[in-house]
Design a protein that fits this description.
alpha/beta, Rossmann fold, DNA polymerase, domain 1, 2 domains, binds S-adenosylmethionine
Length: 297
Protein backbone atom coordinates (compact mmCIF):
# COMPACT_ATOMS: atom_id res chain seq x y z
CA UNK A 1 0.00 0.00 0.00
CA UNK A 2 1.22 3.53 -0.74
CA UNK A 3 1.92 5.89 2.14
CA UNK A 4 -0.82 8.55 2.10
CA UNK A 5 0.66 11.88 3.23
CA UNK A 6 -1.06 13.66 6.11
CA UNK A 7 -1.93 17.39 6.05
CA UNK A 8 -0.08 17.73 2.74
CA UNK A 9 -1.68 20.96 1.52
CA UNK A 10 -1.74 22.64 4.93
CA UNK A 11 1.90 21.79 5.74
CA UNK A 12 3.31 22.95 2.40
CA UNK A 13 1.26 26.15 2.39
CA UNK A 14 3.15 27.22 5.54
CA UNK A 15 6.52 25.66 4.71
CA UNK A 16 7.09 27.05 1.21
CA UNK A 17 7.16 30.79 1.85
CA UNK A 18 9.94 31.36 -0.72
CA UNK A 19 9.75 29.17 -3.81
CA UNK A 20 13.45 29.76 -4.60
CA UNK A 21 14.46 28.71 -1.09
CA UNK A 22 16.37 25.74 0.33
CA UNK A 23 14.16 23.19 2.12
CA UNK A 24 14.80 20.22 4.38
CA UNK A 25 12.45 17.22 4.75
CA UNK A 26 13.76 15.38 7.83
CA UNK A 27 11.32 12.47 7.49
CA UNK A 28 11.34 11.45 3.82
CA UNK A 29 9.30 8.21 4.25
CA UNK A 30 7.91 7.45 0.80
CA UNK A 31 8.53 11.02 -0.32
CA UNK A 32 5.00 12.30 -0.87
CA UNK A 33 5.75 15.56 0.93
CA UNK A 34 9.16 15.78 -0.77
CA UNK A 35 7.73 15.17 -4.22
CA UNK A 36 5.12 17.87 -3.74
CA UNK A 37 7.76 20.31 -2.46
CA UNK A 38 9.73 19.67 -5.66
CA UNK A 39 6.57 20.21 -7.72
CA UNK A 40 6.08 23.61 -6.15
CA UNK A 41 9.55 25.14 -5.75
CA UNK A 42 11.21 26.99 -8.62
CA UNK A 43 14.27 25.79 -10.60
CA UNK A 44 16.41 27.87 -8.18
CA UNK A 45 14.95 26.10 -5.13
CA UNK A 46 16.44 22.97 -3.53
CA UNK A 47 15.36 20.13 -1.28
CA UNK A 48 17.48 17.97 1.01
CA UNK A 49 15.81 14.93 2.57
CA UNK A 50 16.75 12.65 5.46
CA UNK A 51 15.47 9.31 6.73
CA UNK A 52 16.93 6.86 9.23
CA UNK A 53 15.39 4.00 7.26
CA UNK A 54 17.78 2.78 4.58
CA UNK A 55 14.86 1.41 2.50
CA UNK A 56 13.26 4.87 2.41
CA UNK A 57 16.55 6.40 1.24
CA UNK A 58 17.02 3.79 -1.50
CA UNK A 59 13.41 4.37 -2.57
CA UNK A 60 14.05 8.14 -2.75
CA UNK A 61 17.25 7.71 -4.78
CA UNK A 62 15.45 5.41 -7.18
CA UNK A 63 12.23 7.39 -7.61
CA UNK A 64 13.29 11.02 -7.52
CA UNK A 65 15.65 12.08 -10.27
CA UNK A 66 15.89 15.82 -9.88
CA UNK A 67 19.05 17.92 -9.70
CA UNK A 68 17.45 20.07 -6.96
CA UNK A 69 17.07 17.00 -4.70
CA UNK A 70 19.48 15.05 -2.46
CA UNK A 71 18.76 12.44 0.20
CA UNK A 72 20.78 11.13 3.17
CA UNK A 73 20.60 8.07 5.41
CA UNK A 74 20.82 9.60 8.87
CA UNK A 75 18.99 10.21 12.09
CA UNK A 76 17.42 13.68 12.26
CA UNK A 77 19.02 14.10 15.67
CA UNK A 78 22.31 14.45 13.76
CA UNK A 79 21.30 17.42 11.59
CA UNK A 80 24.11 19.59 12.93
CA UNK A 81 26.83 17.23 11.72
CA UNK A 82 24.94 16.42 8.51
CA UNK A 83 24.57 20.09 7.56
CA UNK A 84 27.41 21.90 9.37
CA UNK A 85 27.58 24.82 6.94
CA UNK A 86 24.00 25.09 5.81
CA UNK A 87 20.84 26.90 6.83
CA UNK A 88 17.39 26.29 5.38
CA UNK A 89 14.31 28.39 4.63
CA UNK A 90 11.98 25.67 5.84
CA UNK A 91 12.17 22.35 7.70
CA UNK A 92 9.50 19.64 7.78
CA UNK A 93 9.17 16.93 10.45
CA UNK A 94 6.38 14.40 9.82
CA UNK A 95 6.93 12.15 12.82
CA UNK A 96 6.34 8.46 13.52
CA UNK A 97 6.31 5.50 11.18
CA UNK A 98 5.33 5.12 7.57
CA UNK A 99 2.44 2.85 6.62
CA UNK A 100 5.01 1.05 4.45
CA UNK A 101 6.68 -0.11 7.68
CA UNK A 102 3.40 -1.72 8.76
CA UNK A 103 2.83 -3.25 5.33
CA UNK A 104 6.06 -5.27 5.28
CA UNK A 105 5.78 -8.22 7.73
CA UNK A 106 9.57 -8.67 7.67
CA UNK A 107 10.02 -5.31 9.43
CA UNK A 108 8.08 -6.58 12.47
CA UNK A 109 5.95 -3.47 13.06
CA UNK A 110 2.54 -5.08 12.55
CA UNK A 111 0.55 -7.26 14.91
CA UNK A 112 -1.60 -8.30 11.98
CA UNK A 113 0.97 -10.24 9.98
CA UNK A 114 3.64 -12.67 11.10
CA UNK A 115 7.28 -11.64 10.94
CA UNK A 116 10.44 -11.32 13.01
CA UNK A 117 10.07 -9.04 16.05
CA UNK A 118 12.30 -6.26 14.74
CA UNK A 119 10.53 -2.83 14.66
CA UNK A 120 13.75 -0.89 14.02
CA UNK A 121 13.42 1.95 11.52
CA UNK A 122 17.20 1.82 11.07
CA UNK A 123 18.04 -1.87 10.80
CA UNK A 124 21.78 -1.10 10.67
CA UNK A 125 21.96 -0.18 14.37
CA UNK A 126 20.38 -0.57 17.79
CA UNK A 127 18.48 -3.53 19.22
CA UNK A 128 15.39 -5.26 17.85
CA UNK A 129 12.08 -5.54 19.70
CA UNK A 130 12.74 -9.28 20.12
CA UNK A 131 16.19 -8.70 21.64
CA UNK A 132 14.69 -6.25 24.09
CA UNK A 133 11.61 -8.32 25.01
CA UNK A 134 13.76 -11.39 25.65
CA UNK A 135 16.18 -9.58 27.95
CA UNK A 136 14.33 -6.73 29.74
CA UNK A 137 12.98 -7.20 33.26
CA UNK A 138 9.25 -7.52 33.83
CA UNK A 139 9.22 -4.03 35.39
CA UNK A 140 11.09 -2.48 32.45
CA UNK A 141 8.57 -3.97 30.00
CA UNK A 142 5.62 -2.91 32.12
CA UNK A 143 6.95 0.65 32.49
CA UNK A 144 7.47 1.07 28.73
CA UNK A 145 3.99 -0.27 27.88
CA UNK A 146 2.46 2.12 30.39
CA UNK A 147 4.56 5.18 29.62
CA UNK A 148 4.63 5.04 25.80
CA UNK A 149 1.41 3.10 25.15
CA UNK A 150 -0.76 4.28 28.02
CA UNK A 151 -1.56 0.57 28.38
CA UNK A 152 -3.58 0.06 31.54
CA UNK A 153 -2.92 -3.70 31.50
CA UNK A 154 0.85 -3.12 31.26
CA UNK A 155 1.70 -5.21 34.34
CA UNK A 156 -0.37 -8.20 33.26
CA UNK A 157 1.05 -8.10 29.73
CA UNK A 158 4.63 -7.82 30.99
CA UNK A 159 4.02 -10.80 33.30
CA UNK A 160 2.61 -12.85 30.40
CA UNK A 161 5.64 -11.99 28.22
CA UNK A 162 8.08 -13.02 30.94
CA UNK A 163 6.16 -16.27 31.53
CA UNK A 164 6.18 -17.02 27.80
CA UNK A 165 9.90 -16.48 27.42
CA UNK A 166 10.69 -18.70 30.44
CA UNK A 167 10.20 -21.70 28.14
CA UNK A 168 11.26 -20.32 24.71
CA UNK A 169 12.41 -17.11 23.07
CA UNK A 170 9.75 -14.73 21.82
CA UNK A 171 10.81 -14.20 18.22
CA UNK A 172 7.81 -13.29 16.08
CA UNK A 173 5.10 -10.63 15.97
CA UNK A 174 2.39 -13.30 16.18
CA UNK A 175 3.92 -14.77 19.35
CA UNK A 176 3.75 -11.32 20.94
CA UNK A 177 0.21 -10.65 19.66
CA UNK A 178 -1.05 -14.02 20.96
CA UNK A 179 0.61 -13.44 24.34
CA UNK A 180 -1.14 -10.06 24.63
CA UNK A 181 -4.43 -11.70 23.62
CA UNK A 182 -4.14 -14.11 26.57
CA UNK A 183 -4.43 -11.03 28.82
CA UNK A 184 -6.68 -8.64 26.88
CA UNK A 185 -9.77 -9.71 24.98
CA UNK A 186 -10.81 -7.85 21.88
CA UNK A 187 -13.80 -5.69 22.71
CA UNK A 188 -14.16 -2.86 20.19
CA UNK A 189 -12.60 -1.87 16.89
CA UNK A 190 -9.10 -1.40 18.31
CA UNK A 191 -6.97 -4.56 18.52
CA UNK A 192 -5.69 -5.27 22.07
CA UNK A 193 -2.07 -5.34 20.84
CA UNK A 194 -2.21 -1.83 19.33
CA UNK A 195 -0.94 0.09 22.36
CA UNK A 196 1.79 -2.41 23.24
CA UNK A 197 3.18 -2.50 19.69
CA UNK A 198 3.22 1.30 19.58
CA UNK A 199 4.99 1.52 22.94
CA UNK A 200 7.64 -1.06 22.01
CA UNK A 201 8.25 0.67 18.66
CA UNK A 202 8.75 4.05 20.36
CA UNK A 203 11.17 2.47 22.83
CA UNK A 204 13.17 0.40 20.31
CA UNK A 205 13.68 3.47 18.11
CA UNK A 206 14.26 5.81 21.06
CA UNK A 207 11.88 8.14 19.22
CA UNK A 208 11.24 10.73 21.92
CA UNK A 209 14.94 11.17 22.69
CA UNK A 210 15.80 11.77 19.02
CA UNK A 211 12.94 14.25 18.70
CA UNK A 212 14.17 16.27 21.70
CA UNK A 213 17.73 16.32 20.35
CA UNK A 214 16.60 17.34 16.86
CA UNK A 215 14.46 20.20 18.22
CA UNK A 216 17.41 21.53 20.20
CA UNK A 217 19.49 21.67 16.99
CA UNK A 218 16.91 23.17 14.60
CA UNK A 219 18.02 26.69 15.37
CA UNK A 220 21.51 25.94 13.95
CA UNK A 221 20.18 24.84 10.57
CA UNK A 222 17.35 27.35 10.13
CA UNK A 223 17.71 30.81 8.59
CA UNK A 224 16.20 33.81 10.34
CA UNK A 225 12.61 33.96 9.06
CA UNK A 226 12.75 30.23 8.28
CA UNK A 227 9.72 28.05 9.02
CA UNK A 228 9.43 24.76 10.94
CA UNK A 229 6.41 22.53 10.35
CA UNK A 230 5.96 19.59 12.73
CA UNK A 231 3.29 16.92 12.40
CA UNK A 232 2.94 14.64 15.48
CA UNK A 233 0.87 11.49 15.81
CA UNK A 234 1.25 10.82 19.53
CA UNK A 235 0.35 13.06 22.47
CA UNK A 236 3.83 12.51 23.96
CA UNK A 237 5.45 13.83 20.75
CA UNK A 238 3.13 16.82 20.63
CA UNK A 239 3.84 17.59 24.29
CA UNK A 240 7.60 17.57 23.63
CA UNK A 241 7.12 19.96 20.70
CA UNK A 242 4.85 22.28 22.69
CA UNK A 243 7.10 22.32 25.74
CA UNK A 244 10.22 22.89 23.68
CA UNK A 245 8.89 25.96 21.88
CA UNK A 246 6.74 27.50 24.62
CA UNK A 247 9.53 29.26 26.57
CA UNK A 248 11.19 30.51 23.39
CA UNK A 249 8.19 32.03 21.68
CA UNK A 250 7.97 35.78 21.27
CA UNK A 251 4.90 36.92 23.17
CA UNK A 252 3.04 40.18 23.43
CA UNK A 253 4.74 42.41 26.05
CA UNK A 254 1.87 41.98 28.54
CA UNK A 255 2.51 38.22 28.64
CA UNK A 256 6.15 38.49 29.64
CA UNK A 257 6.52 38.31 33.41
CA UNK A 258 8.59 41.16 34.82
CA UNK A 259 12.12 40.16 35.88
CA UNK A 260 12.12 37.02 33.81
CA UNK A 261 14.33 37.17 30.77
CA UNK A 262 13.20 34.80 28.07
CA UNK A 263 15.39 33.92 25.13
CA UNK A 264 12.92 34.49 22.34
CA UNK A 265 13.95 32.54 19.30
CA UNK A 266 10.71 31.62 17.55
CA UNK A 267 7.31 32.94 16.64
CA UNK A 268 4.30 30.65 16.75
CA UNK A 269 2.66 30.78 13.32
CA UNK A 270 -0.03 28.16 13.88
CA UNK A 271 -0.78 26.62 17.25
CA UNK A 272 -2.64 23.48 16.35
CA UNK A 273 -3.95 22.28 13.02
CA UNK A 274 -5.85 19.00 12.74
CA UNK A 275 -6.90 17.11 9.61
CA UNK A 276 -10.37 17.88 8.28
CA UNK A 277 -13.24 15.39 8.69
CA UNK A 278 -12.86 14.63 5.00
CA UNK A 279 -9.13 13.82 5.29
CA UNK A 280 -9.82 11.54 8.29
CA UNK A 281 -12.52 9.76 6.28
CA UNK A 282 -10.16 9.15 3.34
CA UNK A 283 -7.11 8.37 5.53
CA UNK A 284 -8.11 7.18 9.04
CA UNK A 285 -4.40 7.12 10.08
CA UNK A 286 -4.50 10.93 9.98
CA UNK A 287 -7.03 11.17 12.85
CA UNK A 288 -4.38 11.54 15.56
CA UNK A 289 -2.25 14.10 13.66
CA UNK A 290 -1.52 17.54 15.13
CA UNK A 291 0.47 20.08 13.16
CA UNK A 292 2.31 23.04 14.69
CA UNK A 293 4.14 25.76 12.77
CA UNK A 294 6.87 28.09 14.03
CA UNK A 295 9.22 30.57 12.44
CA UNK A 296 12.66 31.69 13.58
CA UNK A 297 12.96 35.34 14.56
C1 LIG B 1 5.31 9.51 8.80
S1 LIG B 1 6.68 8.98 7.87
C2 LIG B 1 6.96 10.34 6.80
C3 LIG B 1 6.13 10.29 5.57
C4 LIG B 1 6.51 11.30 4.53
N1 LIG B 1 6.22 12.66 4.92
C5 LIG B 1 5.87 11.00 3.19
O1 LIG B 1 5.27 11.91 2.62
O2 LIG B 1 6.00 9.87 2.70
C6 LIG B 1 8.01 9.17 9.00
C7 LIG B 1 9.37 8.79 8.46
O3 LIG B 1 10.34 9.35 9.34
C8 LIG B 1 11.39 8.43 9.51
N2 LIG B 1 11.98 8.73 10.82
C9 LIG B 1 11.44 8.51 12.03
N3 LIG B 1 12.28 8.89 13.00
C10 LIG B 1 13.39 9.37 12.38
C11 LIG B 1 14.62 9.92 12.85
N4 LIG B 1 14.88 10.03 14.15
N5 LIG B 1 15.52 10.34 11.94
C12 LIG B 1 15.25 10.24 10.60
N6 LIG B 1 14.12 9.70 10.10
C13 LIG B 1 13.20 9.27 10.98
C14 LIG B 1 10.75 7.07 9.43
O4 LIG B 1 11.70 6.09 9.04
C15 LIG B 1 9.65 7.30 8.38
O5 LIG B 1 10.11 6.95 7.12
Amino acid sequence: MLHVPVLLEESLDFLLHDLSGAYLDLTFGRGSHSQEILNRISPQGSLHAVDRDQEAVLYGKDKIKDSRFSIYHSNYSEIDSLFPQQQFDGILLDLGTCSTHLDDPMRGFSFQSDGPLDMRMDTSSGFSAGEWLNSATEKEISDILYEYGDEKASRKIAKAIVEYRSTRLMETTIELTKTIETVLKRTGKIHPATKSFQAIRIHVNNELHHLKVALSKLNDVLKAGGVIVIISFHSLEDRIVKNFFRPQIKKLPKDIPINISVKETYRCIKKKIKPSANEIKINPRSRSAIMRVFSKL
